[in-house]
Specification:
Shape of chain A: globular
Helix content of chain B: 10-25%
CATH topology of chain A: MetI-like fold
Number of helices of chain A: 12
CATH architecture of chain A: Orthogonal Bundle
CATH topology of the largest domain in chain B: Rossmann fold
CATH architecture of the largest domain in chain B: 3-Layer(aba) Sandwich
Structural class of chain B: alpha+beta
Strand content of chain B: 25-35%
Oligomer: heterodimer
CATH class of the largest domain in chain B: Alpha Beta
Largest sheet of chain B: 6 strands, mixed
Helix content of chain A: over 70%
CATH superfamily of chain A: MetI-like
Number of strands of chain B: 22
Number of domains of chain A: 1
Strand order of the largest sheet of chain B: 6-7-8-3-9-10
CATH superfamily of the largest domain in chain B: P-loop containing nucleotide triphosphate hydrolases
Number of domains of chain B: 2
Strand content of chain A: under 5%
Number of strands of chain A: 0
Chain lengths: ~260, ~350
């Protein structure tokens, strides 16, 4: 089917649209452009080079911080995906309570500061020493909520009789979950996993509150450096992170699109 | 015509009750279903027929009652261990598996060797007329083809009993008539007892050996289609199956007295049922033995037959609707005509 109305919009509407996009993406473009700066200044483009990218890879502290971040993000992704998927299945198939649904997803929309302070108080009350482990637990708290939201949306669309048909044909509960439920929700599970990973990678506020002093994550390391001025090295690093995020977001979107097209049958 | 299974029944349901919260879905259902029988559960929505079917499959837990399949307690087993398969209204085909693997899902769960699964799948796909489509995904099939896959998947395990939930409701009208015949042929071919849930009486009457009419969580009558029509057990069945004229009154030995008039018929109860084709309509005074007199409200000619609506003098039907008379060919009376109505006492039944 064609959309004739697409041609009828007045041409001038392009201007506010472009304005919006410029507002959204110009700052990012500036960072990317300056990351190729050959000079020392983080603000004036003096020539093109990849020297700051090389600098990023030579910088031991940054490498350490990146490793910490990837550790936390990977752990967060794995635990959030497993917990979130199980929680979503339980909520949709067995609980059917709007209140429980809301409770499961609230951490995703709660202000970071509230979660951060709450978790910090909890950790110190429980006598748990702060470090990468506590950051991971903290990130899992909201990562799980995002996974629940994504997987739940897919599950409610799923025809419940698929699972009944599996049981009817002789499959027990576990076999049914592995062979029918999981394949049907797989794209949403993958999307949720990518989402929790990327959210953890660039999360600052909660990590800042719940981390120990010896093992900073990348956003904390970057923050501690930009307090004394932005260097082109930071721009290069930011560009690299942007690349990783874009890849993850596109992969997640593709996975979700597969979900939707398989619904059409 | 056998109206009861001749041998020991395959399925024996006794006193089955089920409830959702305050709603009593089944209120004591008794049923016997014979081996290789084509059995239909017919009733309006909310009558409990789907709950009964899902209880047999193991997806609902009845509150009380017993179900025996070939002498064994069916309710004691979880859904995945029951020798019963179900064809779902939505077909519930696994979208991520090919037709072959959908059909082979049951045999694979039973732990059959791969070679045997392949043979069985090929065989059953041939039975339902889907050879050559085994590699397709469900999304690449037409509605009729999907229905055949669902059927193949449900019979490949050779269950003792096949449950079909509104099997034809998702199909187009013309495909539906063809599939009715097809289902019947298949049932003879595979020799499995079929239990079909439907709200469509044409479907039930044309396919089933016996039909259980349900309403309000109770079985109102179990009988062969002809008997349901000819001898309904009560007012509900009489009105639900086919068209009928029902009168309420006091029964006597010769018929039912309504508004001081004796309507001839046999039986006990307070409702008299007479089918439209059993009522004879004549111009006023054209013959003796008139039961009722009235005026023609409307005639409706539809090719082979005519339906005539008559308002009877001094007597109303139980539903308050005009009487309906059908006769072969063109109408013998015109709208507004004064007429006499009569029927043979043997054509009318008095029921509860």
């Amino acid at each position: 089917m064609s959309a004739p109305s697409a041609k009828q919009g007045p041409g001038l509407l392009w201007i506010p649209l472009l304005g919006c996009f410029a507002f959204l993406y110009l700052p990012i473009l500036v960072v990317v452009a300056l990351s190729f700066n050959s000079g020392r200044s983080a603000l004036n483009l003096q020539g093109l080079s990849l020297r700051w990218y090389a600098e990023v890879f030579r910088d031991g502290d940054l490498g350490h911080a990146l490793l910490n971040t990837l550790l936390v993000a990977t752990g967060t992704m794995v635990v959030s995906t497993v917990l979130g998927t199980m929680l979503a299945v339980g909520l949709v198939r067995h609980a059917r309570s709007t209140a429980l649904d809301a409770f499961a997803m609230t951490p995703a929309i709660l202000p970071d500061l509230v979660l951060a302070i709450g978790l910090l108080s909890f950790f110190s009350w429980a006598g748990i020493s702060l470090g990468l482990g506590t950051v991971m637990v903290a990130h899992t708290a909201f990562g799980t909520a995002f996974v629940v939201a994504v997987v739940r949306a897919r599950l409610v669309q799923l025809d419940g009789s698929l699972e009944e048909a599996s049981q009817d044909l002789g499959a027990g509960g576990l076999t049914t979950f592995v062979r029918v439920t999981l394949p049907s929700i797989a794209p949403a599970v993958v999307a949720g996993a990518l989402l929790s990973f990327t959210l953890s990678v660039d999360e600052f506020v909660i990590a800042f509150f719940t981390n120990g002093p010896s093992s900073p994550t990348l956003p904390i390391e970057i923050y501690s450096r930009v307090r004394f001025g932005v260097t082109p090295e930071i721009n290069a690093l930011a560009s690299l992170l942007l690349l990783v995020s874009v890849v993850a977001v596109v992969a997640g979107a593709l996975a979700l699109r597969r979900t939707e097209t398989t619904d059409d049958d | 015509m056998t109206t009861e299974p001749t041998t020991e029944p395959l399925l024996r349901v006794r006193g089955l009750t089920a409830a959702y919260g305050d709603v009593q879905a089944l209120r004591g259902v008794d049923l016997d279903i014979g081996d290789r029988e084509f059995f239909a559960l017919l009733g309006p929505s909310g009558c409990g027929k789907s709950t009964l079917l899902r209880s047999l499959a193991g997806f609902e837990q009845p509150a009380s009652g017993t179900v025996e399949l070939a002498g064994e307690d069916l309710l004691a087993q979880p859904a995945h261990r029951r020798p019963v398969n179900m064809m779902f209204q939505s077909y519930a085909l696994f979208p991520h598996l090919t037709v072959e693997r959908n059909v082979g899902y049951g045999p694979a769960r039973a732990g059959l060797p791969k070679a045997e699964i392949a043979t069985r799948v090929a065989e059953v796909l041939r039975t339902v007329g889907l050879e050559g489509l085994g590699r397709r995904r469900p999304s690449q099939l037409s509605g009729g083809q999907r229905q055949r896959v669902a059927l193949a998947r449900a019979i490949v395990n050779r269950p003792r009993l096949l449950l079909l939930d509104e099997p034809l409701s998702a199909l187009d009208r013309n495909v539906r008539a063809q599939m009715q015949l097809e289902l019947k042929r298949l049932q003879h071919e595979v020799g499995i007892a079929f239990v079909v849930v439907t709200h469509d009486q044409d479907e039930a009457l044309s396919m089933a050996d016996r039909v259980a009419v349900m309403s309000d969580g109770l079985v109102q009558q179990v009988a062969a289609p002809e008997e349901l029509y000819r001898a309904p057990a009560n007012r509900f069945v009489a009105e639900f199956i086919g068209r009928s004229n029902v009168f309420e009154g006091a029964a006597g030995p010769d018929g039912l007295t309504v508004g001081g008039r004796l309507l001839p018929g046999h039986g006990t109860g307070s409702f008299l049922v007479v089918r439209p084709e059993d009522v004879v309509v004549r111009p006023r005074g054209a013959g003796a033995g008139a039961v009722l007199s009235g005026r023609v409200l409307e005639t409706q000619f539809s090719g082979g037959s005519t339906a005539i609506a008559v308002a009877a003098d001094g007597v109303a039907t139980a539903s308050g609707q005009p009487l309906v008379v059908t006769q072969a060919g063109a109408p013998s009376v015109q709208r507004g005509a004064e007429v006499d109505l009569s029927w043979s006492p043997d054509a009318a039944r008095i029921v509860a």
